[in-house]
Write a structure and sequence with these properties.
Layout lengths: L8 H15 L6 E5 L2 E5 L4 E4 L6 E3 L13 E3 L1 H12 L10 H9 L1 E10 L4 E10 L11 E4 L10 E4 L7 H5 L2 E7 L2 E6 L13 E3 L3 H21 L6 H14 L8 E4 L3 H5 L3
Parallel strand pairs: 3-11
Antiparallel strand pairs: 1-2, 1-6, 3-13, 4-12, 5-7, 6-7, 8-9, 10-11
Bound molecules: iron/sulfur cluster (SF4) (2 copies).
């Protein structure tokens, strides 16, 4: 890992984007110092999952969201996961080569942040790691065109060759924790996530169980790991538990907001 670089504003911005998503789901008051900024978070008064979160993102694999300088943002658990893959020479079907993960690890830059939790009055220094090969507005190093004989380059799909260890900000992309009012948080899915700026052409479709398990739950678990690495207690376990129980129950896709925490659903509905 490399520590000789000046951290770019865009890298701090992408760290803040990740923090903003789990910060809105916090159970405790905390302030986090990133660069020269102090971001404050308070627990939501109400937290609901929007019916829109259950839509399937029909990604077209156009590579649009990976072709500009997105920062890859990791914390300690993500790094440990990659080190384990390399150490045990695990064969990962969605990653062509362990050397690619080694390259990723070598290119990471450490960014220290300070987390102040009001509940225990303690300031902790925690770290993010960002990947530097995506600097300067270049296509992400890990986004490759999957050559398919008989198809033109335009028809071939772009794929993420580190899908299994892709960072949370890539996994979370179109999923967002939104707030119409600061104290009411909505977990939803919309194009105004990270990908909006890239003109994402994906259109949302009907619920797809396999994709929901593979992408949506994975993204939420990945966000939870980051919050845990930073020592922040969030409502993510409650959200994940609710979704897992719902999947097991075989109940239909919710058509109304699902209350996870706080006031009743009818009160919540009038805000959305
Ligand atoms: S890590 Fe994967 S999903 Fe993220 S920008 Fe790179 S290729 Fe795209
Ligand atoms: S821009 Fe949208 S459609 Fe294209 S790869 Fe990214 S998420 Fe998929």
């Amino acid at each position: 890992m490399n520590n000789d670089y000046k951290i770019l504003d865009s890298e701090l911005r992408d760290i803040k984007w990740v923090v903003g998503n789990f910060g809105r789901l916090t159970k405790e008051h905390f302030t986090i110092n990133i660069g020269s900024e102090n971001l404050k978070f308070v627990p939501p008064r109400r937290l609901v999952i929007s019916p829109q979160f259950f839509r399937n993102k029909n990604c077209l694999h156009c590579g649009g969201c990976c072709k500009k300088g997105t920062t890859l943002v990791y914390t300690a658990s993500g790094i440990a996961e990659m080190q384990k893959i390399i150490e045990h020479k695990l064969v990962i079907s969605t990653c062509n080569d362990n050397e690619i993960i080694e390259q990723l690890l070598l290119g990471l830059i450490k960014v220290d942040v300070k987390v102040f939790c009001f509940d225990n009055n303690v300031v902790n220094t925690k770290s993010f790691w960002v990947y530097n090969k995506v600097r300067n507005n270049l296509r992400c190093f890990f986004n490759k065109l999957k050559i398919d004989a008989g198809k033109s380059a335009e028809e071939c799909l772009w794929e993420c060759i580190i899908h299994v260890v892709k960072p949370t900000n890539c996994a979370f992309s179109l999923r967002v924790c939104d707030s119409k009012r600061e104290d009411i948080i909505l977990l939803t899915k919309k194009q105004y996530g990270r990908n909006w700026v890239f003109g994402c052409p994906a259109e949302f479709g009907e619920f797809n169980r396999e994709e929901f398990e593979m992408y949506d739950l994975k993204a939420l678990r990945s966000l939870l790991r980051i919050a845990e690495d930073l020592g922040i207690s969030t409502f993510l376990p409650e959200i994940i538990n609710w979704l897992e129980s719902w999947l097991q129950s075989g109940d239909p896709v919710p058509k109304e907001p699902v209350k996870i925490y706080g006031g009743n659903v009818n009160q919540t509905r009038k805000f959305f």
